[in-house]
Each structure stands twice: as structure tokens, then as C-alpha cells.
Design brief:
Shape: elongated
Radius of gyration: 20 Å
Number of strands: 2
Distance between the termini: 46 Å
Order of helices and strands: EEHHHHHHHHHH
Strand content: under 5%
Largest sheet: 2 strands, antiparallel
Number of helices: 10
Structural class: mainly alpha
Length: about 240
């Protein structure tokens, strides 16, 4: 299994391939009948655990087998869940994939919580970029961004999934912006600095660097991109 380790004790699927066109291995939940109670959110702890187990299993299966080879039976076997359970918690394949997208967003961002908390200082900002590069150098080399990997394969297929993944990037950018805004408020950045613009530029540099590092299987493009982002922010240091 390909994992992108993002922090101490935290990991998420690094290469998430989507289920694509519905086929014989995945039927929409409505095939069970229009009057069936479908897509309900669990109200018990046991139900929440079962749903999360299914989401985790789906992410693992698509990462390991890819879109064409992955099947509902694979997900059920991995999650130790019956088809009726799968269809109880998810309306159809896109409903499950949206849950995978949400879980991917949460895992990527949750794994950086401690790093985000220190983005209000220059040293913390540098430490965050160093950690991102180190992460990509582990586990066999650069694997890219899990959110971007999903977006590239699902973004044009389902608007709801695209919106979920876009929200993941928005949340990521907000953490960077919050840190830079704190630096600005503390007088570490000059008056002409625009934390929102710098945050957007930094995230764009990060994502571009991740793509090139993944494509070239070399962390140097990522290091260069993040050094460029730091250099830009550095021009506004007080």
C-alpha cells in the first residue's frame, strides 16, 4: 500500500485512484428499491465505526488496485461489511467517493496541525516547508499530494467531489494565511505585505512543487518551489 506519511503517527493514502464508470461491480443503491432507507448517517457509535471502516477500506482498495480493478466486493471484503451495509451508508459509488475525498482532506490537514500552529513565526514557516520535503523523501520517494491526486482523477467526473476537494485546498490555504496574518500582526511582516496573497502563492508553489516532484520522482523541484515561496515571503520581513 502506498502511504504518504504526513506527521508523527499520522498517515493517509498517498496515491488514491478513483472508481470510475459504474459497471457490474458497482450498482447504484436505488436498485434495492425506491422505498428503502438509504444513505443514512449513523446515529450510534457502532454505526459510525462501520461507516468509517468502509471509507478507509475504499481508499485503500482504490489506492492499491486502481479504478478498473477495484470493485464493491473488494471494498466489502476489506471492510468486513456486507453489500447491504455498503448501500445503507452510501447512496452510490459517488457518495462513497465523496466520503473518501472528505476523509482525505481531513487526514492531510490533521496531520499538519502541529506544523500549522507554528506558522506564526518565520522559524515555524521554515520548519513546515522542511517537514513537507522530508515527508516526500520517505517511503520510496515523492508521491504527490493525496488531495490533488484525487482531484486529477475525479474532479471532472463529479462536481460534488470536486467541490469537496477544493474545500480541502481552501482549508489548507486558510491555515497558511492565518499564520502569515499572525506574523503581520506581530510586526514580523512589513505593512505592505498581503497575507492572503502570500498564502495563495505559497499553496500554489507547494502544489506545483509536489506535482513536479511526483512526476520526476525527485524531491528537488518541491524544495526549489518552497524555497521560492520562502524567498517571496522573506522580501516582506520587517
Amino acid at each position: 500500500m502506498n502511504l504518504l506519511v504526513l506527521g508523527q503517527g499520522q498517515s493517509v493514502i498517498g496515491l488514491v485512484s478513483p472508481f470510475i464508470e459504474a459497471g457490474e461491480n458497482w450498482t447504484v443503491k436505488s436498485s434495492f428499491g425506491d422505498n428503502c432507507d438509504m444513505g443514512t448517517q449513523p446515529t450510534t457509535e457502532r454505526g459510525r465505526q462501520t461507516r468509517q471502516r468502509i471509507v478507509n477500506a475504499a481508499a485503500q482498495v482504490v489506492a492499491e488496485k486502481g479504478a478498473l480493478a477495484a470493485s464493491l466486493d473488494d471494498v466489502g471484503a476489506r471492510a468486513m461489511a456486507s453489500r447491504s451495509q455498503l448501500y445503507h451508508y452510501f447512496d452510490d459509488k459517488n457518495d462513497l467517493l465523496r466520503a473518501v475525498a472528505e476523509a482525505t482532506n481531513d487526514a492531510v490537514l490533521r496531520a499538519q496541525v502541529d506544523l500549522f500552529a507554528a506558522l506564526d513565526t518565520w522559524d515555524g514557516l521554515v520548519a513546515w516547508t522542511n517537514a513537507i520535503v522530508t515527508i516526500q523523501e520517505q517511503g520510496g520517494g515523492p508521491r504527490g499530494c493525496p488531495i490533488a491526486n484525487l482531484l486529477g482523477q475525479l474532479g471532472e467526473r463529479d462536481e460534488g467531489i470536486r467541490a469537496v476537494l477544493a474545500d480541502g485546498f481552501d482549508r489548507w490555504e486558510a491555515h497558511i494565511r492565518s499564520g502569515l496574518a499572525a506574523m503581520f500582526a506581530a510586526g514580523e511582516l512589513r505593512a505592505e505585505a498581503d497575507p492572503a496573497w502570500l498564502a495563495a502563492s505559497t499553496l500554489a508553489s507547494l502544489q506545483g512543487g509536489l506535482i513536479l516532484a511526483h512526476a520526476r520522482h525527485d524531491s528537488r523541484p518541491l524544495r526549489d518551489a518552497l524555497d521560492g515561496a520562502l524567498a517571496l515571503i522573506g522580501t516582506y520581513r520587517a
